[in-house]
Amino acid sequence: MQFSAMRNILPPSYYIIVIEQIEYMVDAQYAPLTATLVRTLTDKLYEKRKAAALDIEKQVRDLLQANHLAELKKLLTVLKGLTAAQNAHARKGGLIGLAAAAIALGKNTADYTSQLIEPVLTCFSDPDSRVRYYACESLYNIVKICRSSALSHFDELFDTLWRLSADTDLNVRSGAELLDRLLKDIVLATNSFEISILMSLVRDRIYSQNSSNRRFVVSWLSAVLTAPELSISVYLPEVLDGLFQMLGDSQPGVRDATEAVLGQFLERLHEQKDGDRAELSDMINVLIVHACAEESALTRMIALIWLNCFLKMHSAGLLQYLSSFLTAVLPCLNDSQLKAKEINTHLMELLSENADIEYDAVIKVLLKHIKHEFRDTRMAVLNWISRMHVTAPAKLFSYMDRVFPVLLSLLSDTCDDVLLLDLQLLSDICEGKNTSGVELQELNLNENILKQLSGISPYLVKFTSSLLAMFRSDKALLNDRGVLIVRQLCILLGSGSIYRCLSVLLLNDSDTGFISQMVALLNGILLTSSELFELRKQLRTLESETCINLFESLYRTWAFQPIALLGLCVLSQNYEHASILVRHLWKVDVTVDVLIEIDRLVQLIESPILSYVRLDLLDARHQRPLTAVLSALLMILPQTDAFNTLHKRIQCIPSIVVHEENEQNQLDAKVDFKPLLQHFLRILEEQQEHGLIDRAQQKYSERMLDKKIQLFLCGAR
């Protein structure tokens, strides 16, 4: 009631004065802008805001022309205040007003760059997407006018655009992309721009996990790489790891863009347009990590491409990183699409006698991959060790205590190619003159055996000893690969050396069953393999002391397998002694295995290899003892195919030619069979004793089993 009464008392002129005072106060607040212009500028309708912006543009030109710079700064301050207003339309008005002011300032914007740009930057954090969009539009117009002077705020502009690249609003992202392209054009056109500022910003954001942010960073790298005058490769080690991580991005666009940028970097490095070389060691370490990591195939492929290019550019200078290169290359050799094989071949070609490499690190990497799941990797490791054996044998032998056992274990490899290459390498090592790193005393051999093995490479002795140990522990290896291994070793190292070494070492073995099994295998190879033709010839003629010693060595070991010993005597045409041996076959426990061995011997006598044995049946010197041997075998055999074959052969023998008993076989005279026969008989007696014990134990076990069964049956009742 009091306010109503007062209104009735005050005259109309009073209200006019008050309104004028309020308008004056508002005008003073927005000076040099009027309140009316501000209301229009902050209207919710875009067309009204646009019209007000044109008025501001005109007013700024007038102030600039009149040199009222203080008023101009006040105007910009008013617009800045509007960008921070609570009302969204006011913020939009402030943004369009700043853009209009920049257009009006034109070439004079350099002095007002901060006042124009900084208020707009704050609006990019606005929760209203429309405000953010108008901020993009406003800043685009401002930067377009400011050009190079805007680069004084490059850090803030770059960070803002990086955040906007992942904005949730499509229109905002589109506006930001336009601004981004404009800023790139300005940077590339500004010769004074410091690339270090950009690369520092990129380095800080290179590990972002957001695909949009990644795309933004890659686009900037791509842009500056198109400018030859910008030295950017020197910063490559700082961003290389992050770029390779981007190759594993879920978005194909990001992967493609990153691959393209890496290609640009590689081309820049290859052409060396930059004055400074990038730090190789840092980059190689990054590439090794990504070539080995369980990442996408694209990442591994690009990493190997880079390593291959580095190798072509710097060649032998990169051998100091050989272990790192091998770490990356060896696991990838099975993939033909990768550059791994090319890199591996190039590295191997660079390896020379004087190459400066860390052998310890290289050996460690090779041994780590020698049992890799892929065949190509295992083959490559063996080739590398072989290459080092050729180029630097002395250095390799210093690591032989680590290498040799691993090479031995690889003999059980299921791949024939790997096995043959391993045997080749082992043979090369055994043939080497360097004997450091191995002592025969470690093998616990007695002096007599060491004497028999004199002149043989210690590595060959160690190798054959280890091979026998593997055969003893791994029956599958012996049965499946034993023949292949022995035959290949005979080709590589000479059958005489291999058989001599094996026979001498087998005599030092306490497992008679294993000795018998090995003798059967070695005898079969001796009588059938084409690779052992020369050895068979030497055993037939016994022309030298070495051949005689070899025969005697084989005899002592073959004595554990009577039928094999008969075969050895028949092979060497010592029929007279063979006829003596068959008189003791009654002492042999004729098992199925023995019958099988006799069957094989009969088949061998009928083979082309022993055709001379059949012809000796026509020789007066050999007919009688050889016939005695064949007849003894016939008596032991049951009536099988082998029996019929041997019987027919004996029937074909013509009437025995009688010759004087004092006429001695020249071959018999070359070998002192007396101690050899005593050795055979002693072993035969030992086998008989073991056989009796084994049979007694078997009968005892059978009796105990019968008792247990009876007790069980009684309990069941």
Could you list some keywords that capture this structure?
single chain; 717 residues; mainly alpha; Leucine-rich Repeat Variant; 72% helix; disordered N terminus; disordered C terminus
Beta-strand share of residues: under 5%
Examine the secondary-structure arrangement and name the CATH architecture of the domain at 20-186. Alpha Horseshoe
- The CATH topology of the domain at 20-186: Leucine-rich Repeat Variant
Shape: rod-shaped
Structural class: mainly alpha
Query: Residue share in helices?
Result: over 70%
- Major β-sheet annotation: none
Unreliable stretches covering 5 or more consecutive residues: 1-7, 17-26, 660-667, 695-702, 711-717
> CATH class of the domain at 20-186, anyone?
Mainly Alpha
- Radius of gyration from CA coordinates: 48 Å
Number of helices: 38
Beta strands, count: 0
At the fourth level of CATH, the homologous superfamily of the domain at 20-186 is Leucine-rich Repeat Variant
Mean pLDDT: 85
Distance between the termini: 124 Å
SSE order and pairing:
Elements: H1 2-9, H2 12-30, H3 35-41, H4 46-65, H5 69-83, H6 88-105, H7 113-122, H8 129-146, H9 154-164, H10 170-189, H11 195-205, H12 211-225, H13 236-246, H14 252-271, H15 280-292, H16 297-314, H17 322-329, H18 340-350, H19 359-369, H20 375-391, H21 393-397, H22 400-409, H23 416-431, H24 447-452, H25 458-473, H26 475-493, H27 495-507, H28 512-528, H29 533-541, H30 545-558, H31 562-571, H32 575-582, H33 592-605, H34 611-615, H35 623-636, H36 641-651, H37 666-670, H38 673-716
Helix pairs in contact: 3-4, 4-6, 5-6, 5-7, 6-8, 7-8, 8-10, 12-14, 13-14, 13-15, 14-16, 15-16, 15-17, 16-18, 17-18, 17-19, 19-20, 20-23, 23-25, 23-26, 25-26, 25-27, 26-27, 27-28, 27-30, 28-31, 31-32, 32-35, 33-36, 35-36
